[in-house]
Every structure is written in structure tokens, then in C-alpha cells.
Amino acid sequence: MSVQLGKVVSFILLERFGPLVERVGTYLFEYGTNPLFCIKKFTDLPIPKIKESLAILVKYQLVTFAPNKNDSVANYTLHPNKVLLHLRYPKYINMIKKKFGDEAEVILEEILQKSYWTASEVILHVYEKLKKDNKSNVTLPALRDNFVSLVTAKYLIRVPYNEADDKAVPSLVVQDHELHMAPPVDIMELSTNPQGGNYKDKDIYWTVNFDRFHQDMRDKILVNAFTQKFDENAGELVKLLLRQMYIRTEPWTDVSNPIPLLEIKDLVRKQANLKLLNSFFDQYVNVIEQDSSNLIRKSGEASGGSFQIFLKEAFTQFAWEIVEQCVLEKFDSKAARIFRLVKLKKYIDSDLIQQQAMIPAKEAKKLTFQLLEENFLQIQEIKKASTGTGPHKSFMLFHINLENVVRMLLELCYKTLYNIMSRRNHERTVNKRIIDKKQRVDTISISMRSQGATEEQLADIEDMITPPEKEILEKIDKMMKRLNTVELEVDDTIFLLQMYLVYQ
Predict the structure, then answer these.
(1) Which of helix, strand or coil describes residue 334?
(2) What gap in Å lies between CA 354 and CA 365, rounded to an integer?
(3) Phi, psi of 298, rounded to the nearest 5 degrees
(4) To 10 degrees, what angle do helices 311-330 and 467-502 make?
(5) Is residue 102 located within the same domain as residue 192?
(6) DSSP H stretches of helix in 101-249
(7) Domain with 383 in it: what CATH number?
(8) DSSP labels, 487-502
(9) 454 and 356 in one domain?
(10) pTM, two decimal places
(11) Residues pairing with 158 in the sheet
(12) How many distinct structural domains can be found in the chain?
């Protein structure tokens, strides 16, 4: 189990749910699946507190439970990768805002905060919230339509329900056809009974389908890669290929079913903003086909030909590029040259590395063993056919195990995440007094402004913070923004590396 991942998971649980939940979650991370009495024995917490902590973790889908062999006791399992998803909440919200608008953004934000909700309750809650924010144009039918759009597009998914009440450990199930079935929301009932009540959908709960967001994030990586490497038209062509792939293929398959090229060409012809792509369609297809990422390949010649999308191949190439960039930044260009040489030859002797890398022998040997020490290279011992023992009866070949290197880089990313979060927490602790003062002044200012205070009165309130304190607050603000940006960028790298592992 990853030590660095454990530190990040513990930090997130502590920051978002408090010390008791963090203690229970950390135990499940370290010791794996366990029943309640084992958690009690090793955490030394009262049973009611453990139950409360487990209820919170189950509610936010961070822990799942299953009956033991005799179906009388529940075993609890923590899912560390789901804990990490809390760092991506701003990305999810931003994606929905761009795709569906502000109202859908607020709906998603509320469901993320509460983990699950009925459609009627969340629609009413968002309606009241937007009304308080003076957004007078919001209506219940519009919010209902936004909610249904999120369900139809599979960004929201139905929560499994208990199929039988007589079991000691509940078994939660949901039928496939129910996952994205539009909820029965009665607008008239919401209008006449806004305080809550016995709504038609009172037992139908909805939660966020993270898998759907990750599908969009994966597609965005592919589109951005070709946009940056070629131009926007190449990116649009990849976007259309992916869109048509979903019509005939499961989203997370390694290789798509054949996609007719004429079908893509017709879509391009119908879009007025893709005139250049329409004019040079065949050339763009050839360029993408010959690209080193191996994203698409021909699968037939009939009717203008068909193409298949090789997602596994593409993300393998992206993983290689990340690893090579890490070697370049961690060491230097000569080490990167040696790494690429080993990648090209697959298995190579140290003497050949010194000869073919065009680097002085002593320096090449030093860099090779540095890469070996940092786990970017591995050694394979090959024994000679002759009998006997000793070093002269075998020789060593250097090679790269990409999966091992990717897992090692993930560890480094987790360590970086932990350092970022620790630094941010340190800044808040050290500057707690001045940050609290700024929050009090802002609260007073907002209250006075709502009461119709004059500009002079508001200026007097702002003057409660001295110029030196304002300078310190500006530095803290810059530091926090920088740390947040780096955290999101590290998470982007983690996601790409995880995509490689998903397809292995």
C-alpha cells in the first residue's frame, strides 16, 4: 500500500470531515477491509463515534460495505482513489458550468456537498438559494429541465437502494434501466408545497457519476494533445471521432469498433465553422493516422474506409512522454538520451549504451546507474549457456518497465500533493489571526452595505486593516493561488498516469 497516498488520504479526510473520521479512514487504509469490532479494537474509539464516522464515509461513497461469510456482520472497505476525487470538485463544477450553464452548476455543487439528494429537494433548495442571490429569472421548470439534462447526459446517476429489509447487512442494488431514468418531478406540487413533504420521488436519490466526468477529462486530453501538436482542426476531428465512437462502442474499451470515414466527413460538412477541415479532410486524417500516438488506424477500405480508435495505445504514448519529460527535468538531456535509447532498444547492454548514446563512457555509466537507482531503468540478468558460476557466466541488460515507472511517478505526485496541502495548512495556521480579522471586516462590510451604508462608512471599515496587514494578506493570497494552481496541475498528471493504468 502506498505510504504517500495514505498521507494524502488522511490529510483530505482530516480537512473535510474532522479527526474522528480521519482516524477511522486511516485505519481502513492501513489494514484493509475490516468489521466494526476490529475498528473498535485498534482505534480505541467509542462504538457510537465509529458508527457515525462510518456513516459519513459511506454517505460520501468513500467506504463500501459487504456481508461476511455468514451474512451477519458487515465488512467495511475504504476506496482511496474516491477520497482523491475531492480535489477535483472544482474541475467537475467548471465543466458543468461550461456545458449546461450557471443553474446546472449550482445543482451539481449542492449534490457534491451533500453526496446524494432527491430531485425535488435539490431543485427547491437551489431555487431558494438563487432567489436569495437576486437571480429573479430562475424558475422551477427551468431547474427541473437542467436536472433532467444532467441525468440524461449521465452526469447524475441513481443511488442504489435496499432490495430487502430483513437482512442484517443491507444489499444495495439498482437496475440498469433505472440509472438514468428521468425522475418524476411534479412542478405544481413543488409550487404548492415548497416547505417539503411527501413528494413523488421521495425515495429516489441521485448522486454524481464521476466516471462520466472522467470520460470527458480523458477526451479533453486527447483533443488538446492534437490541437497543440497540429491545430484546432485536428482537435475537432479527434473530437468528432470520439463522439461517433460512443454510438457503437462502450466508452472505456481499449479499441473502438470501426467508424466509417464518410460518416465523419458528413458531420464536418454540416458544420459551418469547420470549412478548412472540410477542404483538407483527407490530409488531416492522414496526419493523425501517421502520428506516433497511434490513436487511429484504418480497419477497411470499403466505402471510403473505416477507422478504429486505439485509446490504450494513445495513453501508453502519453505515459512515455510524461516519463521522458520527468527524466529530462530530474536529470538532464544526456540522461534523457540514454533513457530514449533504452526505450528504443528494449534490452541493451551497458557497453552498448556508452557506445551508442554519444556520451563519454564514464559519464554514460554514471547516468545509467543514476537512472537505475531512481527506478527509471531496471536490470535483467541473462545467464550464458556455458556451465559454471560467477560474474563472467552472466551479463546484465538494461530495460524499462513502464508500468513500474508510472507507479513510481504516481508516488512522487502523491508526495507533492501532500507537501502542497501541508504548506497551505501551515500558511493558514501561521497567519490565522490576520486572516480571521480580514473575514470579520468583510462580514461587517457586507452587512453595512446591505443596510445602505455610505461610501465613507464603508471606507472607515476597510481602514480597520492597516497597510502592513494588507501587504501580508496580498502575499498570502498570491501564495494560496499558486499552491491551488500547482495542486490542480499535479492532479492533471495523476489523472493521465491513472488513465495509462486503467488501460493495462
Answers:
(1) helix
(2) 7
(3) -70, 145
(4) 130
(5) yes
(6) 102-114, 119-132, 140-152, 187-192, 210-229, 232-248
(7) 1.10.10.10
(8) HHHHHHHHHHHHHHHH
(9) no
(10) 0.89
(11) 206
(12) 5
Q: pLDDT tens digit string along 274-306?
A: 888 888 888 988 888 888 888 888 876 544 578
What is the side-by-side strand order in the sheet with 34-35? 34-35, 74-78, 63-67
Cell 477520497 identifies what position?
83
Residue 396: helix, strand or coil by DSSP? strand
List the grid coordinates of 339.
533513457
Please give the grid coordinates belonging to residue 238: 479527434
The answer on 118 and 48 residing in a single domain is no
Alpha carbon distances (Å) from 193 to 183, 196, 199, 204: 18, 6, 9, 18
Q: Which domain holds residue 35?
A: 3-78
Query: Radius of gyration over alpha carbons of the chain, in Å?
Result: 28
Q: Which of 26, 28, 146, 128 is nearest to 78 (CA)?
A: 28
**pLDDT tens for each residue of 481-504:** 999 999 999 999 999 999 999 998
- Same domain? For 287 and 328 the reply is no
Nearest to 235 by CA among 244, 243, 245, 225: 225
pLDDT of res. 302 = 46
Q: Region 152-158: what's the mean pLDDT?
A: 93
CB atoms within 10 A of CB 347: 12
Q: What is the DSSP letter of 385?
A: S
Say which DSSP state 159 is in: P
Task: Tell me the average pLDDT across 231-244.
Answer: 90
CB atoms within 10 A of CB 29: 20
Closest alpha carbon to 90 in 484, 490, 461, 451? 484
Q: Strand, helix or coil at 470? A: helix
Write 106-111 long-range contacts (CB < 8 A, 24+).
Answer: 106/130, 107/143, 107/146, 107/147, 107/150, 108/150, 108/155, 108/208, 111/156, 111/206, 111/207, 111/208
∠314-254-325 over CA atoms, to 5°?
A: 25
**Residues 343 and 328 grouped into a single domain:** yes
**Residue linked to cell 508516488:** 411
**8-state DSSP, 304:** G
